[in-house]
Amino acid sequence: MLQFGQQDASFQAAGGYEGIRQLVNDFYQIMDHSPEASAVRGMYPEDLSDARDKLTCFLCGWLGGPRLYSERYGQISIPTFHARWPIGEAERDVWLSCMAEAIERQTWLAVFKTYLLQQLRIPAERVVQASRASKI
Ligand code: HEM
């Protein structure tokens, strides 16, 4: 059996495009309604439709599924893209905690939930480093 991270095992464990779309919808809904997340929410445009589609497409490819982000929007470096916003440890933790809550809402295997949150910490940390480096 494939491990998460091999081929499209993670994409399948997430329920494919529809499963990832649901995660991202929940993620932005949580961010939109959580008072603790208001400063981070304020970095995004009022209308989250584009952000929803872009994060869904990105995560599909990132989890080993179809590379929808590069097909639709071109190449992206997640740290470089985010460097324009002041994202420190506090903002990273808000983002990750909205993601943790969204992951918890999914009907996924518990081991996959734990795995996904751990994996997301890696780019989230790189975003903080890139944001910090761009302000020096
Ligand atoms: C560390 C905390 C993070 C914060 C505070 C944050 C915040 C943001 C903000 C403000 C935008 C811009 C929305 C817009 O102007 O349209 C954005 C876009 C995006 N973020 Fe993040 N982000 C974080 C981490 C991540 C991580 C870890 C990933 C990937 C795993 C990610 C993937 C994306 C993608 C794909 C976009 C859309 C890019 C585009 O417009 O083409 N973000 N994020």
TrEMBL record:
Belongs to the truncated hemoglobin family. Group II subfamily. Coiled coil: none annotated. GO terms for molecular function: heme binding; metal ion binding; oxygen binding; oxygen carrier activity. InterPro entries: GlbO/GLB3-like, Globin-like_sf, Globin/Proto, Globin_bac-like_CS, Hemoglobin_trunc. This is Globin. PANTHER family: TWO-ON-TWO HEMOGLOBIN-3 (PTHR47366). CDD domains: TrHb2_PhHbO-like_O (cd14773). It comes from marine sediment metagenome. Transmembrane segments: none annotated. It holds the Pfam family Bac_globin. Its cofactor is heme. Keywords: Heme, Iron, Metal-binding, Transport.
